[in-house]
């Protein structure tokens, strides 16, 4: 039974502000700018090199018009240029938010009616700051100037801080019946809706909210669950048949399902707690990224007990498990270069959308029935130049500069791709097999490079060396 290794991730997936575009599976809408980055050029060179290697191993040649530019046929995601918070914590999922979805699911799920689900910016959310810091920031004390912060006295709740008559009033925003409220009379599904309400009417506060104090630097976003209904991504509960468990993830079990007669993979969120914040953010990103070498989102299911994220089913499981279980007797050189090429094509698409995966590894690439490989697990995906505040990192797959500076970009994704190439040609071995984990970064910084796996074509190892040498340039 194939499993979905590490099927859920511990970080949110953040989409971005909208850009005009239309999903079209047959046409290319994206043109790579002439001033491509050095990292993009390296991706381009890697794709071209692997195209040549495919020919060497008697693989049907790629059409002459299949350039890096038109290898990215499904560009619907906006370019991600806004710095974002690592956890858009104010996202609140509530059953009532999706209790009355459209009954015309068939029409809603058609390719022609689906739209990208966007995140709502919350510039006024300052996260974990103290009461004293909030009062220091709220100057000059204009009536109606406000910000929202996480509550220090009531973890999990929030505090609305509002200026009025030269002072700052602090209102506790608490959960009640899975909704947010200040006065136990008016309830909201998320912080953005709460703020919007009090911007229109004071409704019991000391004053109406008239001007927000924007947070400096990275800002937070939230997702309204209703947006998935309106965008056509909701699947009715009765349309999805759940079967056996095929894996475990950050959010809960990953189940085999049947939807419209086809097998699907179902990530299950067991409750409507804080995990829903990351779960919805991942789904919102997946609505904007569509490519043949990325795992496809089919929709979401909401009910009073659970929330499900439904994706296409990859019957042969994770690439690392596939390589280890089949080994040299069954995995051919043709298979290996195809896995490498498919992954590179998917990552080139992400790079063109200015999305950084940040956890590329063979465990996060899945293999379909036809042996095509698709990048999955966008749990760490972020906008370009995103910085991480805490959290665990896959040390052996992460570029040393990214580990030291907490900054990730398409360059660090390229480093991870180099490690993934080594995984493919070593048939799933753990990288740096003879070096203790604690010593990996030191060795790499001193210029250590892994030897090519047994049987690895010299052309492929040349790509690995180019990647590691490129990332070593200061």
UniProtKB/TrEMBL annotation:
Compartments (UniProt record): Cytoplasm; Endomembrane system
Binding site for ATP: 267
One Pfam family, short name: PK_Tyr_Ser-Thr
Molecular functions per Gene Ontology: ATP binding; non-membrane spanning protein tyrosine kinase activity; transmembrane receptor protein tyrosine kinase activity
Reaction(s) the record says it catalyses: L-tyrosyl-[protein] + ATP = O-phospho-L-tyrosyl-[protein] + ADP + H(+)
Polar residues composition bias: residue spans: 14-32
Record flagged with keyword Zinc-finger: no
E.C. numbers: 2.7.10.2
Region: Disordered, residue numbers: 1-32
Annotated SH2 domain residues: 124-213
InterPro entries linked to this entry: Csk-like_SH2 (IPR035027), Kinase-like_dom_sf (IPR011009), Non-receptor_tyrosine_kinases (IPR050198), Prot_kinase_dom (IPR000719), Protein_kinase_ATP_BS (IPR017441), Ser-Thr/Tyr_kinase_cat_dom (IPR001245), SH2 (IPR000980), SH2_dom_sf (IPR036860)
One BP term from GO: cell development
Domain of life: Eukaryota
Classification via PANTHER family: TYROSINE-PROTEIN KINASE
Family: Belongs to the protein kinase superfamily. Tyr protein kinase family.
Protein name as catalogued: Tyrosine-protein kinase
């Amino acid at each position: 039974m194939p499993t979905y290794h590490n099927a859920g991730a511990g970080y949110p997936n953040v989409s971005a502000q909208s850009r005009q575009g239309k999903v079209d599976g047959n046409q290319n809408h994206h043109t790579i700018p002439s001033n491509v980055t050095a990292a993009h050029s390296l991706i381009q060179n890697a794709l071209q090199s692997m195209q040549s290697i495919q020919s060497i191993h008697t693989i049907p040649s790629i059409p002459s018009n299949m350039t890096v530019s038109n290898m990215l046929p499904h560009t619907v995601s906006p370019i991600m240029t806004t710095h974002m918070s690592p956890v858009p914590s104010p996202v609140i999922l509530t059953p009532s938010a999706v209790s009355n979805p459209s009954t015309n699911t068939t029409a809603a799920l058609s390719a022609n009616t689906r739209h990208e689900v966007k995140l709502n910016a919350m510039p006024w959310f300052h996260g974990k700051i103290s009461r004293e810091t909030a009062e220091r920031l709220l100057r000059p004390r204009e009536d109606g100037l406000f910000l929202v912060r996480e509550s220090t006295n009531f973890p999990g709740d929030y505090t609305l801080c509002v200026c009025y008559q030269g002072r700052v009033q602090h209102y506790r925003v608490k959960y009640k019946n899975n909704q947010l409220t200040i006065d136990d009379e008016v309830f909201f599904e998320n912080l953005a809706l709460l703020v919007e309400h009090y911007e229109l009417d004071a409704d019991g506060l000391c004053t109406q909210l008239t001007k927000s104090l924007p947070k400096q630097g990275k800002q937070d976003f939230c997702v309204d669950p209703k947006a998935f209904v309106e965008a056509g991504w909701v699947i009715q509960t009765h349309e999805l048949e759940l079967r056996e468990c095929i894996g475990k993830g950050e959010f809960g079990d990953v189940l085999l399902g049947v939807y419209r007669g086809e097998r699907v993979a179902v990530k299950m969120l067991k409750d409507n707690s804080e995990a829903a914040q990351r779960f919805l953010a991942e789904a919102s990103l997946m609505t904007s990224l569509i490519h043949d070498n990325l795992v496809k989102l089919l929709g979401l299911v909401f009910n009073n007990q659970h929330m499900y994220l439904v994706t296409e089913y990859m019957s042969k499981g994770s690439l690392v498990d596939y390589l280890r279980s089949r080994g040299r007797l069954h995995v051919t050189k043709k298979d290996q270069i195809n896995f490498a090429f498919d992954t590179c094509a998917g990552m080139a698409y992400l790079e063109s959308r200015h999305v950084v995966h940040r956890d590329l590894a063979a465990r996060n690439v899945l293999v379909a029935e036809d042996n095509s490989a698709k990048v999955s697990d966008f749990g760490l995906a972020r906008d370009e130049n995103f910085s991480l505040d805490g959290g665990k990192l896959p040390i052996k797959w992460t570029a040393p500069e990214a580990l030291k500076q907490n900054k990730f970009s398409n360059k660090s994704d390229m480093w991870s791709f180099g490690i993934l190439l080594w995984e493919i040609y070593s048939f799933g071995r753990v990288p740096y097999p003879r070096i203790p984990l604690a010593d990996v970064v030191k060795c790499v910084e001193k210029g250590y490079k892994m030897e090519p796996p047994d049987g690895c074509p010299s052309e492929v190892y040349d790509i690995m060396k180019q990647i590691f040498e490129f990332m070593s340039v200061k």
